[in-house]
Design a protein that fits this description.
The complex is a heterotrimer. Chain B contains 9 helices and 10 strands. By secondary structure, chain B is an alpha+beta fold. In chain B, the strands form 2 sheets. In chain B, strands 3-2-1-5-8 form a 5-stranded mixed beta sheet, with no helix packed on it. Chain C is α+β, with helices and mostly antiparallel strands. In chain C, α9 crosses α11. Classes of the chains: A mainly alpha, B alpha+beta, C alpha+beta. The interface between A and C is large, with 132 and 116 residues.
Chain lengths: ~675, ~375, ~425
């Protein structure tokens, strides 16, 4: 599906009227107009523009971040004191299940997808992704899937089996509400969304790079996103199969995990963790990519060991498949399996260590500017290192049998996920905000935001290491007074500190929200190149035009933009980098050779309709098979509608260019 | 308002609707019922396609000027394969009428499909004067229908014959057949992949010939009928306690699985030694021979049964005798494995629901035919 | 130089105290609780000690690595802050350094992996087993049964079934054979060994051995549903002589209450109200037939705790609620190992001068439990909502006993010693 067409046979008709800046559809032959609106709610609902979709991904993921955050705060409130009664046992179980599910599937993954969607085409010099309508479909399906999953709170209770949903506790016998069904179908929906997204981005990276953009000139963020998409592509089918087995067991009487029929419940654990472990890298690698962009920019020197960082990312992606059973050291696998997986798990620390060394060495000898984005990126190095080394302590299998399912593990993976992934995403917010919205986030608020989150994370998850090592198991609705031990620094003390810390993080996130609000209201525009950035996404307007680049840039080097701005000159026998062009000049040079005809994929009704039919079917599986039939009918209709519709609306749908210099889609952007 | 393509399908909708009414009103019996259902389906499908065409303006092909204004008859008719396929269908109809109903039904499907294609082709071939546009229109109208249907047909044409073949061939034969077919596919595809210059026609020809061969094999296998597949009788207490007839035992044990998937994490390994003693080794104290096993009640107990004697043996668990609800004495419960050949092993899962005190007969493990050898089951 | 760049630099100057970064992690390591009962760094037996031996150096290594990275980052932040120096040379790395930095962690990890693998196999050793105890998990309590045969020096003549507290002789390699009746649970006594999951249909083994008499607390650590947090356990280690006493008591004949006493009324109340699920060994109907519990008819897991010797334990209901008063419990927990066994064997009759008065028995808690168990411990026991389980309970339902019945039952249960 080519998205950019330059028809040679059909020259655009130039009209005399130079004025109209609004695109109007041509006289419609059918009853429906093809949606071509470039402003208003319709332009968002039916858009296939990767940037609009990226922003919507971000907004929705942020919303679910708040939902998952409130769940986390409730959990911490419950655990602040022994035998607490903020939440009932049943509600607590639902809460930690949904906290994990929401944060993993509805916040971190889609927020990474937001950045990937927005910046991956920009970083490789493409005008959109390879399959724009599938991209839109992926977003809407994620949104509807997320809403579907959370409606379970109001329809009999959410899932209560933990995000790992171990069988047989997840069977209808032991979890009789519809919560697990919602969880299963909800993850299927968001899984489809991620899967189509991954194929889309893989094809985009492999096929749509600008001239000169070899794989080894791609920005590290794009590289890490590419690795993540491959992980998704292979990991999601596994969980899909597992979820199907579970839903057939719960809804249609199958017996895949029924011990009385000869099943072995460990089957579920293997399936889940073969997906679940790569999922860890799916969560963390985009953030690695982001900070690999941020650190060089503010250190004013290229990423140290670009190739090593790229290959260690790919190595993590490969080795990540061979370590799943380290989640099961206490499951009774037998000593041989345990020993093998223990050693394999240690192996994965090597490429991870390489990355940390490279980031540190990127700072070495630089000219460091401590912007908020930079602080968040450095925060990632520090916090992820702590999460990483505690990870090695449970790669040691005997040691892990003491630590697994205790708060030590909770502390460990929150350092990795919050300290690594979430801090990285925040670095991305501050770094790319001016690119996405044309305005700089307030740096003073930003630094407050950073320090509150940084201290909050250490206050919340640091004590958890102690709690776990001193014997507090996780997933306990209440912990008994008997557990606390003696002394001032007893477990009750550390539990209170952790709860305080979680609220500190919450205040930090609140400051981010305030910052966004303040920034949106401020009139001042950001400069074109506020950070003296290095990569391709900055060689265009802020925010970028709908077609991204007036002319597709030709790439000559890694950090292309930097090398267009700076050149090495010899001064007094010494090589010195001197700025030869401003960002505005670079952009002006690109705009001067703008392509004449830029055909972009056109908006479409069908992605949202198709995405909408699937949750209806999912409700049908849970409540009434007639709904399933209705959903399938809508699904069929949307699929045929989609198949009949060409990807690019005809020229006649748009007004022709007003003058020779600008293109039809530029009008669409500013109209 | 109405696009070129949609007019065709709206017309078709109307025709099939009218036919539905006429057929429904005039024809009775089974034939009338199927014909009516078929026509209703056709009406719905045509209406759906018509609606989509209206909604999408024929897939948005530029039609600035109505088709009527172009010289539709400027061009002579192009080539078409549909008359021939229609003829094949008609021939099939005749053949089917005198031979088998399935041929007749297939012919009807072929005629309907060919008719639809012919209709659309003849319509689009003279829709406008622009041949390229006409071709595009044709594709836009038919591809969304053709691709899914053809895909399904091709998959069915592979799956169905293969399944017939596997069912008809003897057990080992079907295994070999599966290997041969997959190797053939792999080799063919590799060869084709190594010759990128190969013509489209050649590849299509190879594909078509293989598919035809496959269908031929499938039909032959289906006609030949499937091999005899035995249904194993249930294992009953009578079988386990050695009270069933020789014939029944023979039937149960014939071709029974002798394979183990769960080798570890079992409660005990029960062994018939080469000198015909029944002993148990428990997971945890591997060197000690046990003649009593303590078993938790209400829990599935997995035992690995290994037969090292020279006779095929089964392992039976006596699972107690309980008074029935009406107070009468019940019969003894038992569960057992199928007979395990010498040198083989099998997992045996049984479950004791009540403590030993509740049963009027003792719990134990024994091998029927092996006198005096027994492992007591203690169920507290 | 554009305006924004100078903005950035002033910001950089304002936040110079980067040494702070290291503070957070280091401060957290400062204080730990003393005598936390589930502390994983206080091994009380050889298995836990083996784990401790391999884990401790790893923790130190991890700490050193983390400190090195944090210090390096902090130093770089201070040394290379923007002081208006030239834009640095655009170096793309140093392959030799990179390779060295790849090999270094590989060496460290190789060094860690050797003792790791050795310990994995050491912990799986079974050839010196001197005692086997079956451990079975169900929602939400643990059942232990002691098979007949030798356990250390003690000969067990008939199977013992108990729950909550695992009693084992000291200095004896005990092998637990762990399985489950419903969902997956995990058995964990941190001071004696790591965790082992109890998986239905599978039987896993776990070695246990204690150095000294004492009580070691534990908790089910695989999420097992509604009352997972109230599925606790303990291990009690006794000297061989004390263990012999314990075994003798467990296998002792049923002691029928004195005719006409409150406990005797309690016996009939027990038979009417409790005996459908809870077994008391040796209890007989008026006609002399044994009273046999039939929990497989009423409970999903098919079992309920055996109450024959309830008062020899220190807690009930998944070892969640104490039978001992606060003071007596503390005394038992803090007892020197030489005195521990004697105290423990008295059960709730601790400090009872005549063997009748029970100053250490916390009656209020058991009373509250009998009034409504589901109020104290959430269970799936609402009789109106049992479709998913085919009418069976998961846990103990509210029996709607009146206060008189509760008095009678407590009197009867106090005799189960």
């Amino acid at each position: 599906m080519a998205i950019i067409e330059r028809p040679s046979a059909a020259p655009a008709v130039v009209t005399d009227d130079a004025a109209p800046a609004v695109v109007t559809p041509s006289a419609a032959l059918g009853i429906f107009h093809r949606p071509v609106a470039s402003t208003g709610w319709k332009s968002w609902l039916f858009t296939v523009d990767h940037k609009k979709l990226g922003i919507m991904y971000g907004v929705v993921a942020m919303f679910f971040f708040l939902v998952g955050g409130v769940e986390a705060l409730l959990i911490r409130l419950q655990l602040a004191a022994p035998d607490n009664t903020v939440l009932s046992a049943g509600l607590y179980n639902e809460m930690f299940t949904m906290h994990a599910t929401t944060m993993v599937f509805l916040f971190v993954m889609p927020m990474a997808a937001a950045f990937a969607n927005y910046f991956l085409p920009l970083q490789i010099g493409a005008r959109d992704v390879a399959f724009p309508r599938i991209n839109a479909f992926g977003f809407w399906l994620f949104l509807f899937g997320g809403i579907f999953l959370n409606t379970s709170w109001f329809l009999g209770g959410a899932a209560d089996g933990g995000w790992f949903m171990y069988s047989p506790n997840s069977s209808a016998l032991f979890s009789p509400t519809n919560g697990v069904d919602f969880w299963v179908m909800g993850l299927q929906l968001t899984g489809i969304a991620s899967l189509v997204g991954s194929i889309n981005l893989i094809v985009t990276v492999l096929n749509m790079r600008a001239p000169g953009m070899t794989l080894m000139r791609m920005p590290v963020f794009t590289w890490m996103v590419l690795v993540v998409q491959f992980l998704l592509l292979f990991a999601l089918p596994v969980i899909t199969v597992a979820l199907f087995l579970l839903s057939f067991q719960r809804n249609f009487g199958a017996t895949f995990f029924d011990v009385n029929q000869g099943a072995d419940p460990l089957l579920w654990q293997h399936l889940f963790w073969i997906f679940g472990h790569p999922e860890v890298y799916i969560i963390i690698l985009p953030s690695f990519g982001i900070i690999s962009e941020v650190l060089p920019t503010f250190a004013r020197k290229p990423l140290f060991g670009y190739k090593f960082v790229v290959f260690s990312g790919a190595a993590i992606g490969f080795v990540g498949w061979g370590v799943w059973a380290h989640h099961m050291f206490a499951s009774g696998l037998g000593p041989v399996s345990v020993a093998v997986f223990s050693v394999a798990t240690m192996l994965i620390a090597i490429p991870t260590g390489v990355k940390i060394c490279n980031w540190t060495l990127t700072l070495w000898g630089g000219k460091l500017q401590f912007t908020t984005a930079m602080m968040f990126a450095i925060g990632v190095i520090v916090l992820f290192t702590i999460g990483g080394v505690t990870g090695v302590t449970h790669a040691v299998a005997p040691s892990d049998t003491q630590q697994t399912d205790t708060y030590h593990i909770v502390g460990h993976f929150h350092y990795v996920i919050v300290g690594g992934a979430v801090m990285g995403l925040f670095a991305g917010f501050y770094f790319w905000w001016p690119k996405m919205f044309g305005k700089l986030l307030n740096e003073r608020l930003g630094l407050w935001n950073f320090w509150l989150m940084f201290f909050g994370i250490n206050m919340t998850f640091g004590p958890m290491h102690i709690l776990g090592l001193q014997g507090q198991p996780r997933r306990m609705a209440v912990w008994p007074d008997k557990l606390t031990g003696d002394g001032f620094f007893d477990l009750a003390f550390w539990n209170k500190i952790a709860t305080l810390g979680s609220f500190t993080i919450a205040v930090g996130v609140l400051l981010f929200m305030i910052n966004v609000f303040v920034t949106a209201r401020k009139a001042e525009k950001a400069p074109l190149d506020p950070w003296d950035a290095r990569t391709l996404e900055w060689i265009t307007a802020s925010p970028p035009k709908e077609h991204n680049f007036d002319s597709i840039p030709t790439i000559h080097a890694l950090d292309e933009f930097f090398h267009r701005k700076y050149e090495e000159v010899e001064v007094d026998g010494q090589h010195k980098l001197v700025r030869v062009r401003t960002a505005e000049e670079v952009l002006a040079a690109e705009e001067a050779k703008a392509d004449a005809h830029i055909h972009l994929p056109s908006p479409s009704y069908w992605p949202i309709v198709l995405a909408f039919s699937l949750p209806i079917m999912a409700y049908g599986v849970i409540f009434n098979l007639m709904l399933l039939v209705a959903g399938s009918a809508l699904l069929l209709l949307a699929m045929y509608g989609w198949a009949l519709e060409p990807s690019v609306a005809d020229d006649s749908d748009y007004d022709p260019p007003a003058d020779g210099g600008s293109t039809s889609k530029e009008l669409a952007t500013h109209g | 308002m109405f696009t070129t393509g949609s007019k065709l399908f709206i017309g078709a909708t109307v025709v099939s609707l009218v036919s539905t009414i006429v057929v429904g009103a005039t024809t009775g019996g089974a034939i009338g019922m199927s014909a009516t259902i078929g026509l209703i389906t056709a009406t719905v499908v045509f209406a759906l396609v018509a609606g989509l065409n209206v909604a999408n303006r024929d897939g948005n092909v530029t039609v600035d000027t109505p088709a009527e204004s172009t010289g539709a008859a400027d061009r002579g008719p192009g080539q078409s394969m549909w008359p021939m396929i229609m003829a094949v269908g008609l021939a099939g109809l005749v053949v089917g009428a005198v031979s088998k109903p399935v041929v007749f039904k297939a012919a009807v499907v072929v005629i309907l499909a060919a008719g639809l294609e012919w209709l659309v082709q003849s319509y689009t071939s003279r829709a406008t004067a622009d041949a390229a546009y006409n071709k595009k229109l044709h594709q836009r109208l038919l591809h969304p229908l053709e691709f899914p249907v053809l895909g399904t047909v091709v998959i069915a044409a592979v799956v169905y014959p293969l399944s017939r073949l596997f069912l008809a061939a003897p057990k080992e034969g079907s295994l070999i057949a599966a290997i041969v077919v997959s190797v053939l596919i792999f080799v063919t595809i590799t060869l084709i992949a190594r010759r990128p210059g190969l013509g489209k026609g050649t590849v299509a020809g190879i594909g078509a010939v293989s598919l035809l061969a496959l269908v031929g094999i499938g039909v032959a296998s289906a006609v030949g009928g499937q091999r005899h597949i035995e249904v194993h009788p249930e294992i009953t207490a009578a079988v386990c306690l050695g009270e069933a007839s020789e014939a029944e035992l023979e039937e149960i044990d014939h071709l029974a699985s002798q394979q183990v998937s769960l080798g570890s994490a079992v409660a005990a390994t029960v062994k018939i030694t080469s000198d015909d003693r029944l002993v148990a080794f428990i997971n945890g104290a591997p060197a000690v021979e046990y003649h009593e096993l303590t078993v938790a009640r209400a829990s599935n107990v997995n035992v690995l049964f290994r037969n090292e004697s020279s006779e095929p043996r089964r392992l039976t668990a006596r699972l107690g005798t309980f008074a029935a609800a009406d107070g009468t004495a019940g019969s003894e419960n038992a569960d057992c494995t199928t007979a395990v050949d010498p040198g083989k092993e099998l997992i045996f899962t049984f479950r004791v629901s009540k403590p030993a005190l509740a049963s009027s007969t003792p719990y134990s493990l024994f091998a029927p035919g092996l006198e005096g050898q027994e492992i007591k089951l203690l169920v507290p | 130089m554009d305006r924004s760049e100078s903005n950035v630099r002033t910001l950089g100057r304002k936040t110079k105290q980067y040494a702070w970064l290291a503070a957070g992690a280091a401060a957290l390591l400062a204080g730990c609780a003393k005598d936390a009962p589930q502390d994983t760094f206080r091994p009380a037996g050889p298995n836990a000690r083996d784990i401790d031996t391999v884990a401790r150096p790893v923790f130190w290594t991890a700490l050193v690595v983390a400190v090195i990275v944090v210090v390096a980052v902090g130093y770089a932040m201070w040394k290379y802050r923007d002081r208006g120096q030239d834009i640095p040379e655009q170096t793309h790395g140093n392959p030799k350094l990179e390779i060295a930095l790849t090999i270094l962690p590989a060496i460290i990890l190789a060094a860690i992996s050797v003792p790791t693998v050795a310990t994995v196999f050491k912990l799986d050793k079974k050839d010196d087993t001197a005692c086997i105890i079956n451990v079975t998990g169900q929602q939400w309590w643990w059942e232990y049964d002691y098979p007949t045969g030798k356990c250390g020096d003690v000969e067990i003549t008939e199977p013992i079934v108990t729950s909550g507290e695992l009693v084992l002789p000291i200095d004896t390699p005990v092998l637990l054979r762990i399985t489950s009746r419903d969902v997956i649970h995990s058995y964990w006594i941190p001071r004696l060994n790591g965790k082992r999951d109890a998986v239905p249909g599978r039987l896993h083994t776990l070695r246990m051995q204690a150095d000294e008499p004492g009580i070691y607390m534990g908790q089910c650590t695989e999420f097992c549903g509604l009352s997972h947090s109230r599925m606790r356990e303990a291990a009690i280690s006794l000297t061989m002589a004390d263990f012999q006493t314990w075994v003798d008591n467990q296998t002792a004949e049923y002691s029928a209450p004195e005719a006409g006493s409150l406990a005797a009324i309690g016996e009939s109340t027990y038979i009417a109200q409790c005996s459908k699920c809870h077994q008391v060994n040796g209890l007989a109907n008026a006609d002399g037939t044994p009273v046999l519990a039939d929990p497989d008819q009423y409970v999903v897991s098919g079992v309920a705790p055996n109450l024959s010797k309830l008062m020899t334990r220190t807690a009930f209901a998944g070892w969640t609620f104490d039978l001992l008063t606060e003071e007596c419990r503390d005394e038992l927990w803090r007892a020197p190992s030489a005195e521990f066994g004697a105290l423990y064997l008295q059960g709730v009759y601790m400090h009872s001068p005549d063997g009748v008065a029970t100053p250490c028995f916390d009656e209020a808690r058991l009373r509250e439990w009998l009034r409504d168990p589901t109020a104290m411990k959430p269970m799936f026991a609402d009789p109106t909502n049992l479709e998913s389980t085919g009418g069976k309970y998961r846990g103990m339902p509210n029996l709607n006993l009146n206060e008189d019945q509760i008095d009678e039952l407590i009197a009867y249960l106090l005799d189960r010693k």
